[in-house]
Amino acid sequence: MAGSHAQALFHAEGAHLVLYDGACGLCSRFLRFLLAHDGRAVFKYSSLQSATGRAMVQRYGGNPFDLTSFYVIANYRTSDARVFTRSAAALFVEGELGWPWKAARAAGLLPKIVLDRAYDLVARSRYRLFDRHEQCPMPRPEFRNRFID
After folding, report:
1. Domain segments of the chain: what residues?
2. Residue 89 pLDDT more than 90?
């Protein structure tokens, strides 16, 4: 019993790393949404432009200078870490938030190619539709401990 409690604590706070485009207005809005709804604090955050973001993307075979994707590294501090990108990353995040957001995972029933094409369509026009920041917005003080770099 004590082992399962320790395991639950290990997998809870900051178990997953979200890598986002710090200059993207849509990403910034999504980040604020996550901070507001991640009551268990299961996510840590780092911008793709940071040293940590670039290193993690490169570690998992991505181009650290390509800012068109959204990454989540599940259990990033363990040897069981798994990387999710694009629509799979978004579905993973929604599933970790709990109800009612977990219901969005039903979109995972659609073929991955359809979901990723929809993701890519939004990613290509995100700066035009949601603005672009010159630098990453600073998190509020109560959330700063959730950010790396």
Report:
1. 2-144
2. no
Residue 39's pLDDT band (boundaries 50, 70, 90)? confident
Is residue 103 helix, strand or coil?
A: helix
Q: Which of 22, 2, 6 is nearest to 147 (CA)?
A: 22
Question: What's the CATH fold of domain 2-144?
Answer: Glutaredoxin (3.40.30)
State both tokens at 2: 């004590």
Q: Extract the tokens encoding 111.
A: 């073929």
Q: Does 3 have pLDDT greater than 50?
A: no
On the 0-12 / 13-18 / 19+ scale of CB atoms within 10 A, 68 is middle
Q: State pTM to two decimals.
A: 0.75
Bond before 139 cis per omega within 30 degrees: no
Tokens 């629509």 correspond to 87
Beta bridge partners of 18: 45, 72
At residue 111, the 3 state secondary structure works out as coil
Task: Please identify which residue in the block is written with the tokens 């901070």.
Answer: 35
- 8 Å CB contact between 18 and 33: no
Q: Residues 117, 120, 125, CA angle at the centre, nearest 5°?
A: 135
Kind of pairing between the strands at 71-74 and 16-20: antiparallel
